[in-house]
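Study both lines:
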Amino acid sequence: MRLLFFISSAISIAFAVLADNINNVWLKINNTVIHAEVAASKAAREEGLSYRDALAANAGMLLVFETSRKVCLWMPEVRFALDAAFVDADGVIVGTVHMMPHTDTLHCAPQPVLYALEVNAGWLEANEVRVGDKVHGLSTSN
């Protein structure tokens, strides 16, 4: 009976880890770890953090684009301020922006990127994240 329980528990843990890898990712920038929800489809990227009331500390949303391209972000339905880091295909941060809630202002990457990482306003500065830093944990930069 204990063996059956152990196997069942191990399978449950494996599925939980697998599910986390599908929808979320642990990223490391310098010495800081962040847990990011992944938005890889066009619909998920467009919805982003809209209609949410908050984002947990050390959490974010990783927008993943099909190909490297110059992208813009906006905040019409986001209820709280965010910072974003634009990340190229090599995992290097090439630009950062601060975005205010409920605005249609476009915040564009300075060059083609494969990712954009949205985090709570002030998180980038508080964690000394700068242009040129490497984001670890991305599919192309592990």
In short: The chain has one domain: 24-136.
